[in-house]
Specification:
globular; single chain; Alpha-Beta Plaits; alpha+beta
Length: about 90
């Protein structure tokens, strides 16, 4: 399975418990497709360089994981549909 790195921004207006649910939803989506998350690095709330969806800051986390390509497609779809995610970017580190 290929290794990936994801940077995800969650809406900072959410309660801490809801932010945790967003992180857990990401981890569950990887696990359900046969992948495995090796680490989640929480950066906390950071200010944006410009407004995104009328927000000035967001809660950042970085996740390293191994998963099949179908998992990446599913995660990108979740980032587009779910309201708690402001942005999500998945890359394959070299």
């Amino acid at each position: 399975m290929p290794t990936y790195e994801a940077m995800v921004i969650v809406d900072s207006r959410l309660e801490e418990g809801d932010i945790q649910k967003a992180v857990d939803r990401f981890v569950d989506a990887v696990s359900e497709t046969g992948g495995e998350v090796s680490s989640v690095d929480r950066w906390g709330i950071r200010r944006f360089a410009y407004e995104i969806k009328h927000l000035k800051e967001g809660y950042y986390f970085i996740a390293n994981f191994k998963a099949p390509e179908t998992s990446v497609e599913r995660l990108n779809r979740i980032f587009q549909i779910a309201d708690e995610y402001v942005r999500g970017k998945i890359v394959r580190p070299e």
